[in-house]
Amino acid sequence: MKEFLWHIRVYYEDTDCGGVVYHTQYLNFMERARTEMLRSVGFEQDELLEKENVIFAVRSLSVDYLKPSRFNDLLRISNSIRHLGHASMTFDQSVIRHSDDSLLCKAEVRIACLHSDTLLPCPIPENIRREFNHAD
Q: Mean pLDDT of all residues in the chain?
């Protein structure tokens, strides 16, 4: 799939006592952007659970924190699928400050598709695979 962009504002609750975005919040921002990416092509995670019996879980990630972000910054989260495997997807994600296009954080995130009842790996549903292959 081509690049998907999602914007998010930094709230006070996202920051530490120094007014800087707490490092784990970047992971939350990226999670929301991946969810919105799925939603943008017609897939809701609660419906995938109910109809397909699948969930997506982070299998591994590598994160580089490059510059700080602060309260009230508008951020742009960039998602792209690097690899679409049989039972996993690898995303390249970046967090960019909108006002000056500064790259703040970048990550490689591997997501596993799991059966919701057993939590064992399973194939990515064909309708999702088709949508992401079609968008290339």
A: 94
CATH code, domain with 17: 3.10.129.10
Q: What is the pLDDT of residues 78-98, one digit of tens each?
A: 999 999 999 999 999 999 999
Q: d(Cα 118, Cα 121) in Å, to the nearest integer?
A: 9
What average pLDDT does range 113-132 have in this prediction?
A: 94
What is the C-alpha separation between 56 and 117, in angstroms, rounded?
Answer: 13
Q: Closest by alpha carbon to 113, among 40, 41, 34?
A: 34
Instruction: For residue 135, tell me if it sits in a domain.
Output: no
For the segment 75-80, the average pLDDT, to the nearest whole number, is 97
Which sequence positions are flagged as catalytic? 16
Place of tokens 């996202």: 14
Distance CA 7, CA 22 (A): 18
The answer to the question of residue 132 being in a domain is no
Q: What is the domain extent for residue 77? A: 4-125
What burial class does residue 81 get, using C-beta atoms within 10 Å of its C-beta: 0-12 exposed, 13-18 middle, 19+ buried? Answer: buried
Sign for the pseudo-dihedral over CA of 15, 62, 5, 125:
negative
Structurally, the chain folds into a number of domains equal to 1
Model pTM?
0.91
